[in-house]
Amino acid sequence: MSWSGGKDSALALYYALRDPHYRVAHLLTSVNAHYERVSMHGVRLALLEAQAARIGLPLSLVRLPEMPSMADYDAVLGASLGALRAQGVTTAVYGDIFLEDLRAYREAQLARAGLRGAFPLWQRGSAEVLREFWALGFRAIVVCVNDRYLDASFCGRLLDEAFVRDLPPGVDPCGENGEYHSFVFDAPYFSAPIAFTVGELVRRTYAPPAARPASPAPPADDPFAAGFWYCDLLPA
Questions:
Q1: Is the pTM of this model over 0.85?
Q2: 187 and 10 in contact (C-beta within 8 Å)?
Q3: Looking at the domain that runs over 7-235, which CATH code has it been given?
Q4: Secondary structure, 3-state, 33-88
Q5: Where do the structural domains in the chain lie, given as residue ranges?
Q6: What is the mean pLDDT of residues 138-152?
């Protein structure tokens, strides 16, 4: 399971765990090795490990340098996928919803490693995805927002109906275009919710290139070129 710790990967895992054709063996997450945080989301490694412990699956880390190039990202991820393939893994599950170029990029990476991809949420409406996410008992907090789309007030909020109602026009409810990222602290397959406290809010004016893997050369209007607000979560 390609696991970011956010809502889309969490819901995709729900489907994978219920699918009789699969046996989920690993969670695979990209982390910034310098800061020990989930790439792009900025979530501390300790909270990622808490998710894995509550799910009951081993966690494999794709450790990236502080400022990886796309070549760095491809090489490190390819090595991680190859190692999992050698252990018998055949499929990687993703929570992508509708970005065609991102799916094509992932499938090309997987093909090089001898793997195939599965996309349980593919082409579903964003509003439908969120309604099911809430109905199943998932809970999440917004940990990163792209300030090209959202101001700092959206960062650190619970991902609930009020959050979605407040989104400006043109922002995808699921943040599929990179508008925001989330951390799931409760799920129907967690052994217990994850306790945390909300820390400081900080702004960063860049994002690692590996956070935008849709293509080797991001377009001029690449959303990841903007500044980002991060809400630090502290394990309680």
A1: yes
A2: yes
A3: 3.40.50.620
A4: CCCCEECCCCCEHHHHHHHHHHHCCCEEEEEECCCCCHHHHHHHHHHHHHHHHHCC
A5: 7-235
A6: 97
